Amino acid sequence: MKVLVVGSGGREHALIRKIKESSKVDSIACCPGNGGISFDADCYNVSATDIDGVVNLAKEIKADFVVVAPDDPLVDGMVDALNDAGFATFGPKANAAIIEGSKVFSKDLMEKYNIPTAEYRVFDKADDVIEYIKEKNEFPTVIKADGLALGKGVIIPETLDDAIAGVKEIMEDKIFGASGNNVVVEEFLTGPEVSVLAFTDGRCVKPMVSSMDHKRALDGDKGLNTGGMGTVSPNPYYTDEIAAECMEKIFIPTINAMNAEGRTFKGCLYFGLMLTPKGPKVIEYNCRFGDPETQVVLPRLKTDIMDIFEAINNETLSELDIEWSDEACTCVIMASGGYPKSYPKGIEIKGLTDGQLDGVTVYHAGTAIKDGTLVTAGGRVLGITALGDTLEHALAKSYEAVKNIEFDNAHYRKDIGQRALRMTRLEHNEV
Ligand code: AMP
Ligand code: GLY
């Protein structure tokens, strides 16, 4: 098979590495890809959001299967267009991708089908939001732009003044564009967060191994929200008991709800969960693999990923046994100085050979090859990923490797996995 992967980040690199292991695959293409991906796939300069461009590319290279990884093209109907042109695909159609594309849709869905989530109200006027927040007078409060906003459309103000300023930015200054035409105001929940990615063909749902993201830019969960600064899998807070509860109260009801709405979801459905004192609740759905969750989940997958993608495409997922390794996996993101605000690009990256380093897997998120040299090309640059028999061992390998990779002003968190490690020690009664 020739497989085309649409996208350009660390998640796409992890997908490509796993697809490369498949006995069914003899060549992989990627659009647009990045510097590191170019060692594993043929990269084509077509934007991941250019639907016509991607359909044409798939025809031109005679792709047998197309994997659409990022949120925007899924929400905009790239899978629909590829299916119409006769291509087998992995990823939901637009009418199902709306589960991520609109927070108002997903909140209303959860309310209608009794899926546990934070209490909420929807608004389309800034004055009404401010009135409501004033009246409620409970802080912190959570304000979310309705549409896609590069993972930045959520603010959690601690004071009324900050809330007013945030609402004005989203709804009047439109810092996230039309995404801010409507906002959701939510109850603030507390508890550890868990990411669970799940394969589904609309008939059955098979959760992958759990993971934990680290969203803030700085150690100790300080600083601005980012796309994710590192991940570990498994997530020790996600016990078998909690997994069973999530299956019954969240995963199956969500798949059923989408079917009942005539919006069958086929692909990877991402459940962003918070384990609150009142039980697990959904913080968000994503219609795709998470980034950087994919980087720690897929290395643990033992089953041929193309068997899974084909089973989902053919709606025969229930017949497939999906196997996972018991190892722990960790990913430490090396980012450009300044990220998630502005940052320079084009800085030379030293310490890698063909984009890799012995003992770990380096997933490239934002790199390019300029005049034969590997350089930075994005905010998140590299994800240094390691498997180990324990979380501690995997983390040691990731951090050891980080020391050998250099670029000016590289920034990474030093405490990825520390919270998980503390929890693991408690579980084993270690002091
Ligand atoms: P989201 O983009 O919806 O995943 O939100 C980004 C982050 O904001 C989440 O990972 C949580 O840490 C936080 N968050 C979102 N909603 C809530 C909530 N209702 N209560 C507390 N924290 C939240
Ligand atoms: N890591 C969170 C996301 O992919 O949205």
Describe the structure.
By secondary structure, the chain is of the alpha+beta class. Helix content is 30%, strand content 25%. The protein is built from 13 helices and 22 strands. A 5-stranded parallel sheet has the order 3-2-1-4-5, sandwiched between helices. A 5-stranded antiparallel sheet has the order 12-15-18-22-19. Strands 6-9-7-8 form a 4-stranded antiparallel sheet, with helices on both faces. A hairpin with an 8-residue loop joins strand 7 and strand 8 (154-155). It starts with a strand and ends with a helix. The model has no long low-confidence stretch (mean pLDDT 96). Bound molecules: adenosine monophosphate (AMP) and glycine. Glycine is lined by residues 151, 213, 228, 286, 290-291, 293.
